[in-house]
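Quick one, probably user error.
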């Protein structure tokens, strides 16, 4: 009997490879012999395969060889992320390659190698229930990513329950988008309120959350577990519907955690926010690097509050205000705040989808003459006219200390047949002159909305340019004459490292003209093959009349790889560092400073005491002492302007009065009924 028990245990450990899902044989310890197998041996594709075959046998299911081949490729590439859409047969039940996914997904529950699971656009009815079952057992997955699900989304209520019931889960990144979570909030908020470790990313964008859902998530999830909430580095609630109450509650959360928070990214695009209730607390985030309020209409008061926060920020790097209905006066006020803050530099400024006139260009660049702070300026889909484009080129040329590196001017309005050839020539020459006189500009994007008569003179001027590195001229319908002009540019220019040119109606001869020069280039590291144009050629040609230029495509690929290898650092290499790499381990919760504890309501205190009693790890080394925290909180709670620091709006007393009124409002904020 002892030998039989030993054999069963060794077989189990061989299958599970150290998974904490231990086997319970209910026998006396005296009957347990020493195991001869190495349970510390790292997991391998062979172990995964053995467990998969065992589970297939248990369920009487035919194993999928394609699934096994996919897993083997991940181990071979040392890839710790499982993207289920890349597994053949997983995408839908109607596929000829489809298979029963139960044993495959449950293998992941006991797997100790993989750290990230991606479910993207998989319309398999059982994927969500099986995924949630897997999360009940796995202790190494740190990132879950769910996108574009439409089937069985009501089953996502199991997601929060699975996380809550797995005390040893290691999830630090929750990334869900374009998936209805309205039924899942009830359990997800409980899971967040009871987590005993930190969360790095919380992304619930376009998840059909209404104001009541959001209030519940914030009040009963984030505000009931401050040790977890303080560890957040990225919060994204874009595309959900806020109202006054939920906006106020989010503002209250920001007021609580701001001085102590790790938040670096706040993304609240298209949220119907009441900005007056939110913006007064943004300056409290001392580590905030990216702030995205795109597609939330701004009033005069909203802009004033934003600027009062910008005046006191020191770490901001990205400001996204696309589609915010900004007026000329708004743009000037924001530029004033950016240029007057000596702590800010190299800002990526997104003003896409706003109405921009020539006067707006002056409003943006006028204040920046004093202190240049922009790294990137995005004016995409602003329907730039010839006069606006000329004003932009002039403004950049006249800015002495201009250090802008990237210009994004996509979706312009410069391809109209009503635009005269003379005017188009002026615009093209102005763009070329600007790029020549401002060598700081390394990248320019002119995708869609530019005529041949503009781009041809630009190509001519760029042949001698030695500073521009990235050029995007996609979707301009240049035709083969444009292909010839682009080929001449590539042949004569020695600085370009990236060219994007798809969507220009190139035929096969046009592609050959470009491809042959790319093949000979010593600098180009990125050249996206114009597949849309080539596909269009295939569909319009008769059967068997079109043949892909295989030899040329191979030569282009080899050239790009050679140029990447010869570069000291290439941002186009496959191993370029991502913004948020997959975490290998769970992160500890943060110690809650006394200065934050002193602000909490009784119900928050009760929740804090409950969750603190279950914390496994408390990180007290990465935050300030209680005395320092109190001093910092006191400084941040001072009046918006001190006597020693004259207000930036001293010439606009009506604006100053408005901002002071907002900041001096009663701090007793009503909580939201969840």
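Nope, works fine. Designed sequence:
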């Amino acid at each position: 009997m002892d030998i039989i028990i030993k054999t069963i245990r060794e077989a189990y450990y061989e299958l599970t490879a150290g998974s904490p899902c231990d086997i319970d044989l209910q026998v006396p310890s005296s009957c347990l012999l020493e195991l001869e197998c190495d349970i510390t041996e790292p997991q391998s594709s062979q172990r995964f395969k053995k467990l998969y075959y065992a589970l297939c046998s248990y369920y009487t299911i035919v194993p999928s060889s394609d699934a096994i081949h996919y897993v083997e490729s991940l181990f071979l590439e040392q890839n710790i992320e499982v993207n289920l859409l890349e597994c053949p047969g997983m995408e839908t039940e109607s596929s000829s390659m489809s298979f029963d996914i139960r044993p495959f997904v449950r293998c992941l529950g006991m797997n100790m190698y993989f750290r990230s699971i991606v479910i993207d656009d998989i319309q398999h009815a059982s994927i969500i229930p099986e995924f949630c079952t897997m999360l009940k057992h796995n202790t190494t997955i740190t990132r879950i990513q769910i996108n574009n699900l439409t089937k069985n989304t009501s089953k996502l209520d199991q997601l929060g329950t699975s996380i809550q019931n797995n005390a040893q889960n290691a999830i630090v990144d929750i990334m869900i988008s374009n998936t209805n979570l309205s039924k899942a909030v009830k359990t997800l908020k409980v899971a967040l309120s009871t987590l005993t470790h930190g969360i790095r990313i919380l992304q619930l964008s376009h998840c059909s959350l209404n104001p009541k859902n959001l209030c519940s998530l914030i009040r009963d999830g984030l505000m009931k577990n401050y040790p977890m909430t303080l560890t957040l580095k990225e919060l994204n609630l874009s595309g959900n519907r806020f109202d006054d109450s939920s906006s106020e509650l989010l503002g209250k959360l920001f007021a609580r955690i701001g001085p102590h928070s790790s938040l670096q990214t706040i993304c609240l695009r298209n949220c119907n926010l009441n900005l007056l209730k939110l913006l007064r607390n943004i300056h409290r985030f001392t580590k905030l690097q990216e702030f995205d309020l795109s597609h939330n209409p701004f009033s005069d008061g909203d802009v004033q509050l934003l600027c009062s926060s910008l005046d006191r920020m020191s770490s901001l790097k990205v400001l996204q205000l696309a589609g915010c209905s900004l007026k000329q006066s708004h743009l000037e006020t924001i530029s004033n705040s950016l240029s007057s803050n000596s702590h800010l530099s190299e800002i990526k400024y997104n003003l896409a989808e706003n109405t921009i006139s020539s006067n707006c260009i002056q409003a943006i660049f006028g204040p920046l003459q004093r202190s240049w702070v922009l790294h990137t300026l995005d004016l995409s889909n602003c329907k730039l006219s010839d006069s606006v484009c000329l004003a932009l080129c002039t403004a950049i040329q006249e800015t002495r200390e201009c250090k802008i590196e990237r210009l994004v001017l996509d979706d312009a309005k410069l391809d109209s047949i009503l635009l005269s050839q003379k005017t188009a020539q002026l615009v093209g020459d102005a763009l070329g002159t600007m790029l020549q006189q401002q060598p700081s500009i390394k990248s320019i994007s002119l995708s869609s909305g530019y005529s041949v008569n503009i781009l041809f003179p630009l190509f001519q001027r760029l042949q001698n340019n030695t500073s521009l590195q990235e050029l995007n001229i996609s979707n301009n319908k240049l035709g083969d004459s444009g292909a010839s002009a682009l080929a001449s540019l590539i042949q004569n220019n020695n600085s370009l490292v990236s060219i994007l040119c798809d969507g220009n109606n190139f035929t096969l001869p046009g592609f050959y003209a470009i491809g042959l020069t790319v093949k000979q280039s010593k600098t180009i590291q990125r050249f996206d093959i114009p597949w849309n144009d080539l596909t269009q050629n295939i569909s319009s040609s008769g059967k068997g009349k079109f043949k892909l230029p295989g030899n040329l495509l191979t030569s282009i690929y080899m050239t790009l790889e050679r140029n990447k290898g010869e570069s000291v650092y290439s941002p186009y290499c496959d191993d370029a560092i991502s913004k948020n790499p997959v975490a290998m381990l769970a992160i500890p919760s943060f110690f809650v400073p006394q200065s934050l504890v002193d602000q909490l309501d009784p119900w928050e205190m009760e929740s804090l005491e409950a969750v603190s009693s279950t914390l496994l790890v408390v990180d007290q080394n990465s935050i300030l002492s209680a005395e320092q925290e109190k001093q910092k909180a006191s400084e941040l709670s001072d009046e918006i302007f001190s006597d020693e620091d004259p207000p930036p709006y001293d010439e606009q007393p009506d604006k100053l009065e408005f901002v002071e009124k907002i900041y001096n409002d009663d701090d007793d904020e009503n909580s939201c009924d969840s």
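DSSP finds 25 helices and 18 strands in the chain.
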